[in-house]
Every structure is written in structure tokens, then in C-alpha cells.
């Protein structure tokens, strides 16, 4: 067991900006402090300040070559500034492009020219920096690029936290690869602290447990960051729809007509996300009941604290020699885990995992 949780980040966008700011903002938090967005200031043996970024990979030529403290403020990042981040001595490196940049996003992402810049060997960088956990913060729809980074993690004996809906932890073949090598993996598609998915899950679960027969439900999301711009093309968000839909429908034992997922890109919203939830059903006497909710939140910080807990979970697993998919951790912190578990039960299992009472 080491004193630090050494992390590398693939994709230094808004989520990474919020995470890096958060590590600075809460580095002096006391163990008994209430910190919004994380389970514990000291998660097992690891304090928030024990999480240290040691490598970062990007395709954005405005970020490549800069220290991460500078790169997180480069366009197109629009995450609100809530902490001053000093120079960290970690230079952003060119990562593989593959399908990580959709054709309609090359200009928005300031994508580098492959004739001028060559991507680094990710696995070699992970080895050289003695990385413990690699976070995948690539754009939605980066199926091939995600697998490139997942394989690099396997090659370098590094745990993998899959923050996007490209299925790794929930894919039997990939989960088996991590189990075979004794490397922990958690995913897929990070849940926010209080986001559209967790709110929708709780609403559907509450309605079902109170005896409401749910007839139909939808969740529509709009936002102004590059995540929403990227998902303007339906083919980029197919797995996102699957991830978000299964996270909600797994709460009820029968099929319900649904429409769940991003619906539009509104540039002037920047990092604000607006979610509209609708649920229609019947109560006693077959009488109609309708619920309409609206959620507005800064999108990127909403998941940053969650990821800080995830990487500490993965480091604990590495310390204990646990490999393969972490079911309790994945179910509580991700939308599309290997196994869907109701959130209160998953929360208790994570607490038991921290204490060493359950293995994964």
C-alpha cells in the first residue's frame, strides 16, 4: 500500500477540470468535515489530498504541452472556476485520436494534426509515472479509443475507471481480461452526485414502491458544453441512451415506454445542464397521476467528487490484490454497472467494501 493514489486522466475536459479543482479545493478538509459530493473525506486509508494526478492525455492542441493547471482553462472547457490550481509539473501529452473525435467535433476540440503530432505510448507513460488508476473521461461515443486506453491499463497493470458509456466493466469479455490479470475495473458511465439519472431512478423506484402503475416516463436533457455538442449526432450517443435507460428501467419489474437521454445542445448554457423528467401512471382506482420535475445543475462538478471516491475504491482494491469488476462500487457510482443494485443497498455494500467486509 502506498500513501498516494496516483491517477492518469484520458480527456482533460470539463469533468477533469472539476476533479482537479476539487482536489485543490478540499485538500485541507478535516476528516469530520462534510464535503458535498463524496462519501468520506478519508475513504479507507486515503484522504482527498492523497489523490494525485501524474499524467494526462489529450487530443486538443491548445492543451497538449501545457501543465494541467493551465490546460484545464483552455477552450472549449467551460467548467466554472471554484479553485486556484497551482503549477503541478504534469504536462499534457498527445493521446490517440481513433474515434475519440467525431468528424463534426474536430474544430470544436481543436484536434491536433496527426501529420504534425504523434500520440504517445499510453502504457509506457502509465508505467513511467507509476500510475495506480487511469480515468476515462473521453467524449461519449469513443468506443475504439476507450478500448485503446483500457488495453493500455491492462498492459501497464493499472486499474481502470470508465467514466463514459463505452462498456468495459459491464462487458463480460473485457471484465474477464481485468480479472485474469488481477487488475480492478469499475464502470461504466459515471453517475452524478444528484443528476438526471439518479433523480429519475429514485422517482421511478418511489412510484413503484408506493404502488403506482407506471404507464410512461421520459427524461430530456439540454446543455451547452462539448458533451452535448458531441451528442448532437445520434450515432454518438447510442450507448448513452442504453446506459441511462437501463439505469432507470432496472428499478421496475415490467416494461414501460421510455425516452431517456440528451435532447439538444444549447451553447449559451455552457456547463449548465437542464433536465426535464415526466412520469405518468395510475394509483388506486386506476386514477391518473402525473409527475413533472426540472433539475438545473452545473454538469461537470456534479460528477467530479463521485470519481474521487471511485479512484480511491480502485486503489483499495489494488492494495488488497482484488482484480476484475468491482460490482458494489460500479453499481453505486455508475449508470451501467455489471450488476444493477438499488442505490441504498449499493451504498451499504460500498461501506462494507471500505471496511473489508465484502471483496468487491
Please explain how this structure is put together:
Helices cover 32% and strands 21% of the residues. It is built from eleven helices and 13 strands. It has a seven-stranded parallel β-sheet, with helices on both faces. A four-stranded mixed β-sheet has the order 10-9-11-12. The chain is globular and about 65 Å long. Belongs to the myo-inositol 1-phosphate synthase family. InterPro entries: MIPS, Myo-inos-1-P_Synthase, Myo-inos-1-P_Synthase_GAPDH, NAD(P)-bd_dom_sf. It holds the Pfam family Inos-1-P_synth. One of its GO terms (molecular function) is inositol-3-phosphate synthase activity.
In short, what is this structure?
The protein is an alpha/beta fold and 360 residues long. It has eleven helices and 13 strands.
Write the layout of secondary structure elements.
Layout: E1 5-10, H1 14-25, E2 42-43, E3 46-47, E4 51-58, H2 68-71, E5 92-94, H3 122-128, E6 133-136, H4 143-156, E7 159-162, H5 172-181, E8 184-186, H6 196-209, E9 213-223, H7 226-230, H8 238-249, E10 258-265, E11 272-283, E12 287-298, H9 301-319, E13 324-325, H10 327-333, H11 343-355
Parallel strand pairs: 1-4, 1-6, 4-5, 6-7, 7-8, 8-13, 9-10
Antiparallel strand pairs: 2-3, 9-11, 11-12
Helix pairs in contact: 1-9, 3-4, 6-8, 10-11
Strand runs, count: 13
Radius of gyration: 20 Å
Number of H/I helices: 11
Look at the structure and give the mean pLDDT.
96
Distance between the ends: 18 Å
Label the structural class. alpha/beta
Classify the helix fraction into a percent range. Answer: 25-40%
What are the segments in which pLDDT stays under 50 over at least 5 consecutive residues? none
Tell me about the largest β-sheet.
7 strands, parallel
Instruction: Write the element-wise H/E pattern from the N-terminal end onward.
Output: EHEEEHEHEHEHEHEHHEEEHEHH
Q: Specify the overall morphology.
A: globular
| Proportion of beta-strand residues | 15-25%
Biggest sheet: strands side by side, in what order?
Answer: 5-4-1-6-7-8-13
Quaternary structure: single chain
Amino acid at each position: 500500500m502506498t500513501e498516494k493514489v496516483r491517477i492518469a486522466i484520458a480527456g482533460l475536459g470539463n469533468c477533469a477540470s472539476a476533479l482537479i479543482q476539487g482536489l485543490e479545493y478540499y485538500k485541507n478538509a478535516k476528516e469530520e468535515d462534510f464535503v458535498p459530493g463524496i462519501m468520506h473525506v478519508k475513504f479507507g486509508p486515503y484522504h482527498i489530498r492523497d489523490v494525485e494526478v501524474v499524467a494526462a492525455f489529450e487530443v486538443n492542441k491548445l492543451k497538449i504541452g501545457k501543465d494541467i493547471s493551465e490546460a484545464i482553462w483552455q477552450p472549449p472547457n467551460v467548467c466554472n472556476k471554484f479553485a486556484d490550481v497551482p503549477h503541478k509539473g504534469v504536462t499534457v501529452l498527445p493521446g490517440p485520436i481513433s474515434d475519440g473525435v467525431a468528424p463534426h467535433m474536430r474544430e470544436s476540440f481543436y484536434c491536433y494534426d496527426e501529420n504534425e503530432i504523434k500520440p504517445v505510448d499510453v502504457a509506457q507513460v502509465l508505467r513511467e509515472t507509476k500510475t495506480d488508476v487511469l480515468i476515462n473521461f473521453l467524449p461519449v461515443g469513443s468506443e475504439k479509443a476507450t478500448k485503446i486506453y483500457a488495453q493500455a491499463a491492462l498492459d501497464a497493470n493499472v486499474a481502470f475507471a470508465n467514466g463514459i458509456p463505452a462498456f468495459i466493466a459491464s462487458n463480460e469479455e473485457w471484465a474477464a481480461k481485468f480479472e485474469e490479470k488481477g487488475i480492478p475495473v469499475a464502470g461504466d458511465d459515471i453517475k452524478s452526485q444528484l443528476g438526471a439519472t439518479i433523480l429519475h431512478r429514485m422517482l421511478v423506484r418511489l412510484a413503484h414502491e408506493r404502488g403506482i402503475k407506471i404507464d410512461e416516463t421520459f427524461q430530456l436533457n439540454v446543455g451547452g458544453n462539448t458533451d452535448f455538442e458531441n451528442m448532437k449526432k445520434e450515432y454518438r450517443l447510442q450507448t448513452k441512451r442504453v446506459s441511462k435507460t437501463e439505469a432507470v428501467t432496472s428499478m421496475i419489474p415490467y416494461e414501460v415506454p421510455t425516452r431517456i437521454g440528451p435532447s439538444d445542445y444549447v451553447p449559451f448554457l455552457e456547463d449548465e445542464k437542464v433536465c426535464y423528467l415526466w412520469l405518468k401512471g395510475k394509483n388506486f382506482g386506476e386514477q391518473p397521476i402525473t409527475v413533472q420535475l426540472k433539475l438545473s445543475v452545473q454538469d461537470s462538478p456534479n460528477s467530479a467528487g463521485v470519481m474521487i471516491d471511485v479512484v480511491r475504491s480502485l486503489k483499495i482494491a489494488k492494495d488488497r490484490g482484488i482484480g476484475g469488476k468491482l460490482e458494489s462500487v460500479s453499481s453505486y457510482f455508475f449508470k451501467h454497472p455489471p450488476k444493477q443494485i438499488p442505490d441504498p443497498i449499493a451504498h451499504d455494500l460500498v461501506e462494507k467494501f471500505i471496511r473489508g467486509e465484502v471483496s468487491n
